Amino acid sequence: QVQLVESGGGLVQPGGSLRLSCAASGFTLDYYTIGWFRQAPGKEREGVSCISSSDGYTYYADYADSVKGRFTISRDNAKNTVYLQMNSLKPEDTAVYYCATQRLRLGSHTCMYPFYEYDSWGQGTQVTVSS
Q1: How many Cα atoms occupy the beta-carbon half-sphere of 3 within 13 Å?
Q2: Are 33 and 52 in contact (CB under 8 A)?
Q3: Facing residues of 82 across strands?
Q4: What is the pLDDT of residues 42-72, one digit of tens each?
Q5: In terms of Cα–Cα distance, which of 128, 127, 120 is closest to 24?
Q6: Is the pLDDT score of 109 beyond 80?
């Protein structure tokens, strides 16, 4: 009954903003690393951002260089949801965006793991940045 559902994608003009949501059901996200990935046609799946914890109590986030300063990841444990706020969108941000989870790696301070190390995935939501 584990399920992840992404939402919030759509068509936006360059420079615009979108907020993606990743809602979990069947489990709680508190003790999981959550990653956002994207995949454009003809390209490999790319890690965008992640949020995790090194001790199970406090959280940290990381970002791909291509989105640093423009995207912000956050989580609301009470709502069992992770968000990706995307500002200053560029055409090259166009892709299907996925959220994924894996168990916390206690002691780790980096969470930009490759996609194949994640266990559960949502269905994806399309983001198109175009004039």
Answers
A1: 5
A2: yes
A3: 22, 75
A4: 999 999 999 999 888 899 999 999 999 999 9
A5: 120
A6: yes
